[in-house]
Amino acid sequence: MADLMSGCGLRNGEAAAVNLKNIVADDVYRVTEQVNQTTRDYAPLKHRKANEYRDVPLPARVRDTIEWYAEKYGTVGGYLLRHPKDPGKALPYYHMDNQWRNIKRLGEVEVPDRMVMYGLRHFFASNCLSKRIPITDVAEWMGHRSIDITFRIYRHLMPGSIGRAAKLLDAGLAA
Hints:
The chain is mainly α. It contains eight helices and five strands, in the order H-H-E-E-E-E-E-H-H-H-H-H-H. The chain has a single domain (2-174), classed as hpI Integrase, Chain A, CATH 1.10.443. Helix 1 runs parallel beside helix 5 and helix 6 packs across helix 7. The termini are far apart.
């Protein structure tokens, strides 16, 4: 889930519903559903109707992790992550968050005190924007209902855009 959230920008419930069948190209993952917090079953994506989806970049590292996990642990209907006590059910959305808290509590891996699983999704957006990927693309990949949401949350990561624009415009005026 950590790779899916930090590498593809998936929400917790979307990462819990990862399916091998949704790798539609070497570098594209199709997000088609999520594990619903209330029903604890697969459901349409947030802000989407049934059968609607969004395509997100699939870094090779994330694809390799998905394929490794599937080979090592198997799948059920293509789904990688299943309920730990009943593989016929979806992985509860909160399960990995509980595991994350346990890892932090036990000190097995150094994790900053205030860091939560959802922060990995913010890492994805920050990483994209720091590489100057257009905010319109980032908003679409993250499944935001409108670019305004993305802009409000992540605008502070683009402080140099006005200065950069001034230099580019100045170069154009000098020509």
